[in-house]
User: Fold this.
Amino acid sequence: MPPKSEKEAIVLLINIGVTCPNTENNSSLLEKIKHISKRIIEKKIFLRPKDEIAVLLMGSPITKNCLNTEHVRELTDFQIPNWDLIQEIMNVCGTNYCSNWIEALYATTEFIKKNVIDNSTKKVILMSDFNEEDDIISQFETDSIADLLHTEKIEFLSIGEEALDDRPENTLKISEIFLKDIHKKMNSQHITFSNAISDLRFYLEIPPKPAPWNAILELVDIKIPIVSYIKVTDTKKFPAWKIAKGDKKVISVSEYSDRQRTVYNKEEMVSGYKYGGDFIPVEKTLEEAMSYKSGPQSYKIYSFTKRSNIGLEHWYDYTTRIVLPRLENAEDPFFSLVLAMHKMDVVAIVRKVYRNDCAPKMVTLFPCIDIPDEPWCLVEISLAFAEDRRVMDTRPIKSVMKQLSNEQNEAIDNLLDSLMLPETEDSYALEGSQYFLPGSVSDPAVQHRWHMLSHRALNPDKPLLPMEDYLCKIFEVPSVKEQSRSHLQRIAQLFQLESINHKAEQKEESKKEDNVQDGNRIEEFIKTDDKNDNADSLKEPVMFMDTSDIDLDELVKQIKEKYAYAFVQSVYIT
Assistant:
């Protein structure tokens, strides 16, 4: 199982006033801050409800903090994310009171020291315009602030109107230069309001650290210690709906009764199975004896086959794993095996038992080399057993193609070509967002549901809003629309639609079926014996792979000859 993610304690340090005297409050900036805060809390509500959030205000008319820093107010203490907290932030109004973010950061650090008593990950998210004057900034030192945050193990993120790294040093304000130095010393991050709003459009979970699975890869008399990590798995579904009980207390009581409604105690119950009208009791010891025993954990290569023999239709399951050598003395035999498989263009068929007496799986190991920024490895993909495989027989397209003219065939080919996404990465970008790169498309339906739940929680009496524009744009592909428009018009000209009387056709088909019904029954009776003769061949538990063209002994010999010194007794690890 993957390790549990740590709980986070986040402080939102928000500027609702001004940072420079004799200036007016920027209402548009405050609205952006509110929007970002709302999205952060919403994400916590949906994905990490056990985290805690506190809010501090800069530029507040009320002074309330641990260090009595002027115009800094502790709006809320640490609490689990909730809709009331969002409502409280949205009701905050801008002021013209002056404060600076450095003193507010000291007050926030002291607030965290007094209120976070567990081992939560501590974070501060500072949102301001960073427009303080020189005489205020010159009073502080970056080293002391960075050391304080390091000592208290506080992660720091700032959000401002403009970026810091992309601009020349002479264009930065004194407050921004000071902030940039702190980020360099802490290796922390500064982002803009526009980037923060864009990043928070989709609520994506922070991926947990991968948990390794250790095993011994067995190949004849070769044993290689390996480690496996999950690379691709299914995305998290939308959480199941739960019936809200309100303030009513619900007590669940379990009762065991028969058809006559006679209630029995749990100790009087006998486990078993019912077949037809007969009940067959099965004791616990007998149940364990009947259960399948696959043996201890294992990872054994049974055969090799040409890569072309494993098509996409053979792939099974929703998880892909990466297999690597676990120890240094296992690297030579492991990478020799990967290289040999790559040169011979073969894949390995492996019987995998995840843990003792766990149901075995048949998996395929694909060699993967020469990919930039990735190590040589074996990619594990599960195979389907024969009883799990379903082959869909479709109508042959060649019979339809013969009825088309050359002009119609050419129009269809052109339409299919125009519907293909471009191959260059730059062409995938749509208004600054790469929507069509592999693995980058989030589920807009789930995100829309979260938006609707949030809107209903904050506005229970208002109607639901339509889907937001940025979610609608995901379903649109402007380049494909433009490319395919002329071809669609051409298709409409070449293919004319005709009305068909389905009732008349059904009557004719029913007459034909009546005429051939007796003949079909005779044919089915004759074929019954043939099906019974072939029944045993259909019970093969695993798909048959053609391994006749793979010399297993020769493959093992090549690996041993190249790295003979690596196959010593130390490789055999239990």
The first strand starts at residue 8 and ends at 15. The longest helix spans residues 502-533. Confidence is low (pLDDT under 50) at residues 425-433, 525-544, 564-574.
